[in-house]
Amino acid sequence: MRARAAVLVAAALLSLPFAGCLKRSKLSHSYALDPLPAEAAAAAPASITGPVVGIERVTVPGWLDRMQVTGRATSGAIVSDDYSRWAEPLPRGVQRVVAESLVVLLPDRRVVTAPFSPRDTVEQRVELTLVEAGRQADGRVLVEARWDVIGATGDVLARRRSTHRSSPTAVGAAGAVAGLNGALAELSREIAEVLRTLPAPAR
User: Fold this and answer.
1) Which residues contact 125 (CB under 8 A, 6 or more apart)?
2) Residues 73-108: pLDDT tens digits?
3) Sign of dihedral through CA atoms 124, 198, 150, 86?
């Protein structure tokens, strides 16, 4: 009995430091990007009349393709927050948000995301590469992107390089995510405007 009691006391004493660490540990948070709200949409037409738009998988630099929310320090160094993570891979999140925002901005068109179904005839594909997407040392969020619109036969219908900045009021990762939402909304509006000006594909 004495040996058993000694073991229980030792186990209890060993557990105290770990209990203290658990009590003091910082909680982690998960964040997801948000598309433009539905109320930003124009009046929906009676039917889908425009071309089918496809959003390809988004390409990001390796330093952005991680689960932590990242930003830039004053020296330009990349800073990541281990307690603030993306709820989904950032390339997938950007693809989803741009597609959903284009649904709002282009109600006369059907918007799909890669991988495309064999049943979909995608007439205009948007290929998007993010060069920069994060909070900068001055507090603003910067999104720099290269993107092309590709026709059904593989020809380049439009090619752009875009820069969008937003100034979120919240601090920390929450502000960085809010700023990225704002910058991606402006990028989506730019893509939608270019898609509107392209001639309708022959069918």
Assistant:
1) 53, 54, 55, 56, 149, 150, 151
2) 988 899 998 999 999 999 999 999 999 999 999 999
3) negative
What is the sign of the dihedral through the CA atoms of 18, 22, 25 and 30?
Answer: positive
Q: What is the pTM of this model?
A: 0.84
Q: Tell me how far apart the alpha carbons of residues 167 and 54 are, in angstroms, rounded to a whole number.
A: 30
Q: In this structure, what CATH number is given to the domain that contains residue 86? A: 3.40.50.10610
pLDDT tens, position by position, 128-171: 999 999 999 999 999 999 999 999 999 999 999 999 999 999 98
Name the domain count of the chain: 1
SS3 75: coil
Domain residue limits at 149: 30-197
